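notes to self, project folder thing:

trying the whole complex as one job this time. last attempt i did each chain seperately and stitching them together was a nightmare. four parts in total, labels are on each line so i dont mix them up again. if this works i'll redo the older ones the same way
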Amino acid sequence: MFSHPSVVLGRVPFEDRGFGRKRRMVSKQHSALSHFLARVLLRSSLSEEEREAILALRHQPSKVRSNHDIITPGEHTEEATLVAHGVVARFDGMRDGARQITSFYIEGDMCDLHSVVVPFTGWGLTALSDCGLLRVPHSELRDLAENFPAIGLAFWREAVVDASILAKWVGNVGRRNARKRVAHIICEAGIRMEMAGLGTRERFRFEMTQSHLADAVGLTPVHINRTLQDLRRSNFFSLGAKIVSVPSWERLTELAEFDPTYLLLPKQSAKARRSAIS
Amino acid sequence: MFSHPSVVLGRVPFEDRGFGRKRRMVSKQHSALSHFLARVLLRSSLSEEEREAILALRHQPSKVRSNHDIITPGEHTEEATLVAHGVVARFDGMRDGARQITSFYIEGDMCDLHSVVVPFTGWGLTALSDCGLLRVPHSELRDLAENFPAIGLAFWREAVVDASILAKWVGNVGRRNARKRVAHIICEAGIRMEMAGLGTRERFRFEMTQSHLADAVGLTPVHINRTLQDLRRSNFFSLGAKIVSVPSWERLTELAEFDPTYLLLPKQSAKARRSAIS
DNA sequence: CGGATGATTGAGAAGTCTCAACCGTGGTGG
DNA sequence: CCACCACGGTTGAGACTTCTCAATCATCCG
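result (full assembly):
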């Protein structure tokens, strides 16, 4: 259907850029790509060949320290960003320096898939924790999408998921009070962490500060702090030492009016699915 | 996971479904479809054949009265909704009945493109004004996307635009005060109306009530009312008899911190582009 | 030990909401 | 043709949520 002779699939990763022993790097990189693949396979099915093509994506590892920007708003890049570990956030910056986090991305999420079809953005990306990243050239992703229509569809579907989450966030920020907002985002984080195999919805690491949380739900750090204490006292969940712990998922989702439909996840658990494909 | 049944390539549009006088229907329908095509062509280029295919989309016209829901949240449909005239909103419903509008769609916008790749949703659609709609079966759009990869890419791109607007709305609602929120959404509406050929950014019809506006920016109707009066007094814009009138676009965008980048529009005006394609 | 970052607390200010009433207009039924 | 009703817009007053500012504390790290 399409021919793109310019692309060599299955190319080996770039030379190391000077951190770590090579053997470990390669294995870590591969694991990040396979997490990404697993994320895609959550919602789309791909043939063996298509999966291989994704795993063979050319890429370049890098690290970012907490609170450093990866892409500043308006910047033009030629690379998409895959999170290998840590938490990355997309944000909208206000003139006075205030920020609104509009999405967060965890291990296995590709932050910039949209840049394949739209090469410029109005937002920025920042690291909420120390992060390991894989930079993947847009051209690689574009070739993939064009050479394998199923992958194109899958990427489109991921864009729709993105939009669906964003829409829910608009509702969250626009029409809920502080307690519910915070509760809702914790619910979302719980499910996504669980689907990514990084804990359970009742207990998982939450790699961001209270200020980040404030920027995500459109509140002040001070008010977030009081709200967290309130939620803690009311026994909805506690957040301490970066660990979220939820005594009753039922009760928390009830408070948050949390309905996971918008995450567009399959019924079966992540664990079941991952073992099915590996 | 969402997999699609096998596709028949090059399928011809179905027989008519027997509504209305054919001749007039066809002409009105055609105009709505060509508005949609024009919208797509703003950001993607398509071949003659691909354009024809879009114009040949099977569809069924319908009308909805103001404040009636088109799709209730969670409902399953087999049809996408193209706005022929009027304003349609996507909304997130809260348990207490409150609503947050997450996007609005004007003439030429397809509200449900995402449903091609994700057949269920968590949101609803409602008419903010009396509307003319075209229902387009998902299967039609899916076939188009699969038969014409460039159309698939274009649709994906539209999904990204959707997400980009949504992200901006999160920032708008989460980090701006009432004046700026309202100002910002008016700016967006102005640009989009102008691009759709429905007025100029300085003067256009705004087919929604103050309550709708409140639901869009996450405020109360009462507060919207006072904010509008305030903006009016400060000479940023006035909204009366459903007409928005902006004395100084410069000043309004300055207040709103409005940067149209996120709309992912081309540099040239809608008018220029439309005349180029027709 | 000093400095940086993040969490916590207090008190007053500001922005927005709630409730409740009233007005104007257009449509509708008698 | 009029009376009435429904809807959208407008106003006032008080309540409540959230913000701002400023200080203190805890922890980690060089």
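what i see at first glance: Chain A touches chain B through 56 residues (CB under 8 Å).
need to look closer tmrw
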